[in-house]
Amino acid sequence: IRGSGLVGKVGTDGQVLTSTGAGLTQGFEAAPSGGITHADLYRLNANLGTMDSGFNALTDNWEQADTAGFGLGDLTAAISDESSGVFSFAATGIYRITFRAAFGAETADVRDVTVRIETTVDDGSNWVVQTDTRGHTESHGNWTKNQAYTCCYFDVTETTNSKVRFTMDFTATGIYVTAHEESNQTCVDFVRLAGT
Fold first, then answer.
1. CA distances (Å), 46 to each of 58, 63, 144, in order?
2. 189/149 Cα distance (integer angstroms)
3. Which residues of the chain register pLDDT less than 50?
4. Given CA atoms 151, 155, 159, 162 in this order, what sign does their dihedral have?
5. pLDDT on residue 113
6. I need a surface site. Which of 46, 93, 121, 187 has the fewest CB within 10 A?
7. How many CB atoms lie within 10 A of CB 161?
8. Do residues 173 and 52 touch, judged by C-beta distance below 8 A?
9. 43 near 62, Cβ under 8 Å?
10. Residue-level pLDDT at 190
11. What is the pTM of this model?
12. What is the model's pLDDT at position 58?
């Protein structure tokens, strides 16, 4: 670049051409770090049977997405472990957590459903409600069906005791949480946006 002082100079692998400061010539420096490094997607692979009224933690039938074509590429999996619906994180950082719940009932009655994301920083001794989103079932043939969507940000400052779970509250009995083993009906995704 004429007049830049870079004639005959080359950077090394991983460097980028930058301004080295006001009034200074350009130079090669290490590329800035950051960006999305971790992501993950889990879903229920089978319906959960009729749920009782009150808050129910979704503890069964979770799987990491494995449909053909799904992949994380160069990203690292965000979740290190799932046990009975409690998810542990692979690394510290600020995470965006999204929960989409699909549900239905075998009657045409409108029934309210609340979906929550709950987090803990003390390994489950205390759970904090991060989101509280409501939906209801609507008539769809012989079933009533609908979905609810919610998300939050969670600052994971350490990975031993910081965890997340997903709960649903039904105002009546007889509501199913619906799922599929090859597509995302009831599902959660995790994206690490930045360091803590």
1. 12, 10, 18
2. 12
3. 1
4. negative
5. 86
6. 46
7. 14
8. yes
9. yes
10. 97
11. 0.81
12. 95
Written in H, E and C, the secondary structure of the chain is CCCCCCCCCCCCCCEEEEECCCCCCEEEEECCCCCCCEEEEEEECCCEEEECCEEEECCCCEEECCCCCCCCCCCEECEEEEECCEEEECCCEEEEEEEEEEEEECCCCCCEEEEEEEEECCCCCCCEEEEEEEEECEEECCEEEEEEEEEEEEEECCCCCCEEEEEEEECCCCEEECCCCCCCCCEEEEEEEECC
Q: What is the number of residues in the chain? A: 196
The burial class, CB within 10 Å (0-12 / 13-18 / 19+), for 69 is exposed
* Alpha carbons 92 and 120: distance in angstroms, whole number: 14
pLDDT tens digits, one per residue of 153-196: 999 999 999 999 999 988 777 788 999 999 999 999 999 999 98
Under a CB-based contact definition with an 8 Å cutoff, are residues 80 and 146 in contact?
Answer: no
Question: What is the reported pLDDT for 87?
Answer: 98
For the record, the structure tokens of 133 come out as 């989103």
